[in-house]
UniProtKB/TrEMBL annotation:
Species, as recorded: Niveibacterium microcysteis
Location in or out of the cell: Cytoplasm
Annotated residues for binding of acetyl-CoA: N111
Pfam families listed in its UniProt record: Acetyltransf_1 (PF00583)
Swiss-Prot/TrEMBL catalytic activity: N-terminal L-alanyl-[ribosomal protein bS18] + acetyl-CoA = N-terminal N(alpha)-acetyl-L-alanyl-[ribosomal protein bS18] + CoA + H(+)
Protein name: [Ribosomal protein bS18]-alanine N-acetyltransferase
Signal peptide: none
Length: 154
C-alpha cells in the first residue's frame, strides 16, 4: 500500500501538536501566540500529513504577487526523505495559483541542511539581514535572504 501525502489547512485544533513539534525542532521556537496570530491574520497555514499522520507544517504570508515563507518544519524522523522538497514544491504551486510569482524566506547560515534544501528547490541568496535571529549566549545570528521564482509547475 502506498502512503498518501497531502497538505491540508492548519486549524486551531492542530496547535498543540504544532507547538510541541516546534519546541523539539527549534532552539528558538515560535510561540503558540505566533501560530495563533498567523491563523487569525489569514496567512496560509498548513499541515503536511502522510496517511493522516502529521509530519510537518508551514506558514506563508502572501502579499499581492509575493509570498514570504515564515516557517516550514518537517519532523526529524522523516527528514532526508524528500518530504521537505515536496512540501516546498506543492506550497509554491498553490501560492502561484493564488497569484504569487516569487517566494522569499530567511534562513540561518548555520542551518546547512535547510540551505541545501532551499538551493535544491530553486531558491537563490539575494541578501543578508544582520543580527536577525537569536542565538546562544544572547548573541544574534544573521539571516540569509533567499528568493525563488514561482511558476505554474511550482
Amino acid at each position: 500500500m502506498n502512503a498518501v501525502l497531502r497538505i491540508r489547512p492548519m486549524t486551531a485544533d492542530d496547535l498543540d501538536w504544532v507547538c510541541a513539534a516546534e519546541s523539539v525542532l527549534h532552539a528558538f521556537p515560535w510561540t503558540r501566540g505566533n501560530f495563533c496570530d498567523s491563523l487569525e491574520a489569514g496567512h496560509a497555514c498548513c499541515v503536511l500529513e502522510r496517511d493522516g499522520e502529521p509530519l510537518g507544517y508551514a506558514i506563508c504570508l502572501k502579499i499581492v504577487d509575493e509570498a514570504h515563507l515564515l516557517n516550514i518544519s518537517v519532523m526529524r524522523a522523516v527528514q532526508g526523505q524528500g518530504l521537505g522538497r515536496w512540501f516546498l514544491d506543492v506550497l509554491g504551486h498553490g501560492l502561484w495559483e493564488h497569484g504569487a510569482r516569487q517566494m522569499f524566506l530567511e534562513v540561518r547560515p548555520s542551518n546547512v541542511a535547510a540551505l541545501r534544501l532551499y538551493e535544491r528547490a530553486g531558491f537563490a541568496p539575494i541578501g543578508r539581514r544582520r543580527d536577525y535571529y537569536p542565538a546562544a549566549d544572547g548573541r544574534r545570528e544573521d539571516a540569509i535572504v533567499m528568493r525563488r521564482e514561482l511558476t505554474s509547475g511550482a
